[in-house]
Amino acid sequence: MTVLDARALNRATLARQLLLERADLPAADAVAHLCGLQAQEPQEPFTGLWSRLRAFDPAVLSGLLTERRVVRVHLMRRTVHLVTADDALAWRARHATMLRQKVLGAYRRELDGVDLDRLAATARSVMADGVPRTTAELVRALAADRPRPERRALGEMVLCALVPVAQLPPRGLWRTGGGVRTVLLSSWLGREVDPLPPDGTDPVGRALVRRYLAAFGPASPADLRAWCGLAGLPAAIAATRGELVAFRDERGRELLDLPDAPRPDPGTPAPVRFLPAFDNAILGYHDRGRIIDDAHRGLSVAGERVVLVDGRVAATWTVDAGTVTVTPLRRFSRADRTAVAEEGRALASFLSDGDSRRVRIAASPR
Q: What's the pTM?
């Protein structure tokens, strides 16, 4: 069985994630290919797509949200993702059990004795009028007589797990603020969530395996589970295994992939790329060593924005008053600093609508 070293896996990841070269894709197609973008920080998907697409116009992504072609929902790993409307409707029921379990894991004491099915029915009844509500407004309608800690748990359970909802614009629009307001996903998109098949088959699980590998492969079953949070995918993997090819990494773990998916030569040059907070190019794996050193792994869950140099996390970045500031995690060569500065200037221009090209690179660590 062919062994793929860390550099080969890195270049494959960059290619699948549209980070090896910017793609000539419409924004909606890129969101679909990437299986969504993590989006609890509402502005981050704009940087994520800017780093991946040629001539990306943020107004296009805002338009996709207002036109209801993409939607903000709780999905993979119980985090807010920006996904296509079709994927939200197709995937939501398959994630329902996982979402419920994760909320229960966080609020088991507060939810002890709560009839969750009755709570879901009540919430659907309240939200059936299609009126956008904040979490506080919904909770007041559901449980005005409950103590505040329990009310928070009820809100989390309803909006993250029990009832498929969409977070509405203006939240998530380019350069636009706005708190979370939700409506039923079916009301917003005009059709019901796809139900699970009654015969026990798992077409959504099999599709998730293929879609994940197209955007993240080659990868292990543990990587797939880390990305989506779903435990019940072994049968889906077994059902699709005949369509896949297998490799091993340097530690002997089996990696699965689509036969014709890109696996570039490990020597392929990788350009500097600026990634937003919580980018799935890092979070979409159990083994993140293909793109980030173990010493910096904590950055990926702390909301730090990172810079890829030669395909690996080499710095963090922030922006303030139009200036992009880069803080290296290792020593930069002169060529590294030049390439980071060039891409940083382009990012500053994008984030400021052309008003600034200022970038500052801090001193490298000793």
A: 0.95
